[in-house]
Amino acid sequence: MKDQIPPSNAGIGPKHPDLHASKTLRQQVFEYVRAEGRTARADVTRALEISPGSATTLTADLIGAGVLREVEGAARESGRGRPPVALEVVPDAHFVAGIKLSDQQHTAVLTDFAGNICAEAALTVTAGQTNLTQRVDEVETLLTMLLETSGKTRDEIKAMGVGMSGIIDHDEGTSVWSPLLTDSRVHFRDALFARLGIPVEIDNDTNMLAMAELWFGVGRTMSDFAVVTIENGVGMGLVIGNQLYRGMRGMGMELGHTKVQLDGALCRCGKRGCLEAYLADYALSREAATALNMTPDTDQSTQAMLSALYAKAKEGDASAQSIFRRAGRFLSLGLSNVIQLFDPELIILSGERMQYDYLYANEVMTEMQAFALSEGRTPARVEVHAWGDLVWARGATALALSSLTDQLMGAEAWAK
Amino acid sequence: MKDQIPPSNAGIGPKHPDLHASKTLRQQVFEYVRAEGRTARADVTRALEISPGSATTLTADLIGAGVLREVEGAARESGRGRPPVALEVVPDAHFVAGIKLSDQQHTAVLTDFAGNICAEAALTVTAGQTNLTQRVDEVETLLTMLLETSGKTRDEIKAMGVGMSGIIDHDEGTSVWSPLLTDSRVHFRDALFARLGIPVEIDNDTNMLAMAELWFGVGRTMSDFAVVTIENGVGMGLVIGNQLYRGMRGMGMELGHTKVQLDGALCRCGKRGCLEAYLADYALSREAATALNMTPDTDQSTQAMLSALYAKAKEGDASAQSIFRRAGRFLSLGLSNVIQLFDPELIILSGERMQYDYLYANEVMTEMQAFALSEGRTPARVEVHAWGDLVWARGATALALSSLTDQLMGAEAWAK
Q: Are the Cβ atoms of A8 and B88 closer than 8 angstroms?
């Protein structure tokens, strides 16, 4: 750019956004009905500002395609005369599966097209990294369990979502690095598709949790919020304008690896001063090893060690308390950075470590607010949602439903 | 949220986005032509995937409204037969002004509807905070200067953009805190409108610079990028999907006040460990005062002091070098945090302090990359754009043009 402006016939302003990426009107109608539940056709007309004629044509298309149906007597505006007719998603139009892979136990769920759970499954596995084939085997086992419970066939499952911790490139479908896989840069999505014949989306597990909140939780009333998870690492998911935001090139939101101290504590990523190097399991357990002579061994998992550390702190042990206190202060700092940058109305804290109330004690929340600029602002709210793995797996079904909808409703698919 | 799912007729999925907020097709046509410069009608048809008939109707509307016009002989596809006809924005349909308020000299620019500069003005002012009336006076003086130079009347100016450093609430039109205003929470936008009778948008100056890049700079070829400014403070502007992103409630992007050290250096905001407390003018000058016995007095402004410090560093003074070296390391850290969270392809560094090449030396860039997770990622590029104030003022005109377009092209305005 120069101070000399270009001649006016060269144009100014942002390059025109990719208009092709916007949703078809048909998809907007479908998603409106899905979000509202049972809906009168007149509400669709009003909400989308389309003519009654267009609404009739579009919903007729969707009914013809078997994804919407008319039901009687459930519309909002009841009155005299014939019973009103409402629209709703056809639950058994399609089925999807969602899976959360974890260090010790995987969780899976099968839902219909309206999000109703048809089957659940869990599979206990050996902790630690293993190879791709082993993980694909496990996903196939879980899928088989879901099919047996639900009585569905593999052909009926139209999409799958799989979430796992690590650095996951959703767009490329690769696990760049994961504590669950021995190898780096693994084409996990393609491997699953090759084995199962079902289109798969993979994502970071924190993004899946954000999807669960967006589809089934706070997203039902809020369009923008942040999710921060504390487990073996520190994760972040961001929803902007009703959409999961993964960063400009899809690999952002690595809150756990933002630096909170120059040349600070060593992180498992090999760098120094990362937020998670003060908060994650390994950070707490190495401090416990130093001051409390506690060492994880084969009989004592890191989690058992943390439970023991927590018990000591509760009993009044000053060293144990100082470990949690410092972790809490760094959590305050990390959350205040989220507030400064994203100005969220709500931050949802989640993950297994939320069982340790030191991490969301009053003093942690007070310090978080004290760290952040306050003038002219409404403080961000923090809520702790201590969901079980089933909710994460449901987030994976949301990923599957979302991708399936794009595929079914896009202009290209419809032209077929 | 519970593990129990709601009945399917309650709906699932994100609540339907605010469809009313989307742009009218008419506005999309106008903005496409503005972005392309001279454009054939057939290109509009193709780009927006509308019928030739719709394109004809919509462009006829816009020509009738006096904002687009037909010109001959400039379309892309030249051939035999009659000369092709192209569309372009009518430059003198409307005029806007953009102003950057600064500590020592304000800058102003008046442009036509196609972004051509018609007049420029600058006004030297007394440094420091002053009251609202004084700042409104100064803006009025600048506007008068622009009108005299351009020969336009006040009535012809349809919108104004005003940018200044500080915490500016764009949506509310208030200066929450600014180094230029004595009072906090000042309704600056309304005060300007009351005096000038012209609709005004106010914003943080870094956001204005991001707007300048979006409308006239890298935004002409990129839809997503970050801008980081180092001046008296540290600012950040973010463009996502061709739009300025200000955070969920409009008060985010405060990179300068993210914490990079627990209980760290004191910031002028009163808190400790903010990034800008290691990078901004006041941070460097207080270190210079400590180690080099340099003190700003009435004869020596902070900037003069920094120039002297820089000269010393260039001469080989170890203390002076260590001051810049530390600032550079914190800049590396701050930029790596931007990379971790937003995963940008490009970060533009700008602001007056970019004259000190220590801040973007090879070692700073190398350390920035070393701090960030690299596996599976393409490193972010960093470019230094050392624009003068005129470019910031042009960013303010982009803000004005953008708001004027929304106002002119919205469904409501058109119905009148």
A: yes
Per the document, the length of chain A is: 416
**Is position B221 within any domain?**
no
B54 CA: distance to closest CA in chain A (Å): 16
Residues A138 and A185 in one domain: yes
> Does residue B67 lie in a domain region?
yes
A380 and A260 share one domain = yes
Domain boundary among A44, A66, A89: A89
Is-contact B279 B331, C-beta < 8 A? yes
How far apart, in whole angstroms, are the C-alpha atoms of residue B392 and residue A310? Answer: 53
Nearest CA-CA distance, residue B294 and chain A, Å: 27
Cα distances (angstroms) measured from residue B175 to each of A210, B134, B163, B169, B229 = 34, 15, 10, 6, 19
**Is residue A318 domain-shared with residue A402, that is, in the same domain?**
no
Per-residue model confidence as pLDDT tens digits over A240-277? 999 999 999 999 999 999 999 999 999 999 999 999 99
* Residues in chain B closer than 8 A to A254 (CB atoms): 340-341, 373
Residue in B117, B225, B251 nearest the CB of A5: B117
Q: Which residues sit opposite B200 in a β-bridge?
A: B160
**Contact assignment for A387 to B38 by CB distance below 8 Å:** no
Beta-carbon separation of A249 and B343 below 8 A: yes
Length of chain B counted residue by residue: 416
The DSSP string of B3-22 is: SSPPPGGG--SSPPP-GGGS
Task: Residue window 87-116, chain B: list those with CB within 8 Å of chain A.
Answer: 88-89, 91, 112, 114-116
Residue A95 belongs to what H/E stretch?
Answer: strand A95-100
CA–CA separation, A365 and A350 (whole Å)? 15
Quick check: pTM over 0.90? yes
> Does residue B8 fall inside a structural domain?
no
Residue B287 touches chain A, beta carbons under 8 Å: no
CATH number at A75 reads 1.10.10.10
**What confidence score (pLDDT) does residue B207 get?**
97
Interface of B with A in 225-284 (CB under 8 A): 225, 236, 240-243, 245-255, 257-262, 269, 271, 273
Q: Of B3, B221, B236, which is closest to A391 when you measure between CB atoms?
A: B3
pLDDT tens digits, residue range A342-370?
999 999 999 888 888 888 889 999 999 99
Model ipTM?
0.93
CATH number at residue B142: 3.30.420.40
Residue type for position B243: Q
Distance, in Å, from the CA atom of B202 to the CA atom of B96, rounded to the nearest integer, reads 14
Q: Is A398 on the interface with B (CB under 8 A)?
A: yes
29-68 in chain B: CB under 8 A from chain A: 31-38, 47-49
Q: Answer yes or no: do B371 and A259 touch at CB < 8 A.
A: yes
- How far apart CA A325 and CA A312 sit, in angstroms, is 13
Spatial distance between the Cα atoms of A194 and B285, rounded to a whole number of angstroms: 62
Backbone φ and ψ for B56, nearest 5 degrees, come out as: -65, -45
Closest CA to B98 of B336, B387, B328, B394: B394
Domain that holds residue A325: 254-344+352-386
Domain shared by A301 and A397, yes or no: no
Residue B216 lies in a domain: no
Reported as half-sphere exposure (CB side, CA atoms, 13 A), residue B28 has a value of 20
CA nearest B393 in A: which residue?
A3
Residues of B within 8 A of A16 (CB-CB) are 28, 31-32, 35-36, 47
